[in-house]
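# step 3/5: fold
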Amino acid sequence: MAKLAKEKGSESSVLVGVQNTTDKQSPSSGVWHPSGRAGHGRGMQILRVVAFAVYFNFCCLIIGITQFIGAPLYFFNRDWFYAYMAMTKRSFCLTITLMTHIFGPTTMRISGDESVAGQIMPTSAGGVELRFPERIVMIANHQIYTDWIYLWWIGYANRPGMHGHIYIILKESLKYIPIIGTGMMFYGFIFMSRKMATDQPRLTYRLNKLKQKKVDPQGNTYLDPMWLLLFPEGTNLSNNGRTRSSQWAAKNDLRDPDHVMLPRSTGTYFCLNKLKDTVEYVYDCTVAYEGIPRGKYGEEVFGLSSTYFEGRPPKSVNLFWRRFKVADIPLDDAKKFDLWLRDQWYKKDALMEEYLNKGRFPPLSGAEIDYVETEVRTHYPWEILQIFSVVGICGLLWHNVRRLLQMVSGKLNILV
């Protein structure tokens, strides 16, 4: 059940930097972990690895086959093609949502300031409903590799559901992963080499696609839904990233934030300028994971093994949302934008400091509750069956066609 929480007193605060290390030891290694002892022994962990691999790879294979079945639509009707691929994108979101619910269950705590008042609400079924627009640019600090899973799930929890219209900018090397890389190319994800001279033409091409106006049968123009997810820090927070951020701050005589890395504004500035006539808002999310103390980084404790195999996922994933009008962002001057974005990251750093001290982000503005608490899960357990629908129908059709051909062939043989 989603909890409608009003936090009162120190008893509701989780001082993240102060941990009972006796309860946080791994029985096998003695290594401290914010989610406590490993929930599974070595044997069970191996079984979980096998089950996870079978589930995830099988679902990805089915989604990949579904994509190839629909690929010829590209040559007949582009709108049908993109709608079909959006359907497969929703299938992947269902895959990772159920995967997280089963193997790495965690509590989601969601709040925001006055700019998102009335857009984050609990549901009667114990979930959360967000009412963000159909076309936005999302920016977020990058804590761990799997941040995107929780942010993609936010698209699923939105009304209308936007999990079929997420677009992510990724490292170019990821497109070479078998099946998954091909799937991401079908999704229209944008792959970057991190060299602007090389990236600018392909980025321009993809962004022009995302702002292309369509015409409905009645002659009205419209834009396809789009949530573009950007991580302005460029990489997840780590010791190496923290060092590079500090060096960049020293080189440019800037204040280095304590809990986030200084953002690089070039890519975000380019994207917003390309989309500014077709997107009204930028939504900013500050992400924090329960239990990570000062001096440690999320990637050190919430890796794939800890989260999905050892039974030590984050106890809670905390999201704090803010909204900015694109018209109010200084997009006419790169230096002014750089100052604006850096100022937002300093405010984000202050939010992280508050989270470390209180164990919570500021309360949800304009609401009777401080935050909406729920979990990463699908609306219905059987929703995952949707990903098998196209392959199943095609298999059934092929079976019936083959039987029909066999019957016709048998009758022809009798006649001969």
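# step 4/5: annotate
The two ends are 69 Å apart (CA to CA).
# step 5/5: archive (pending)
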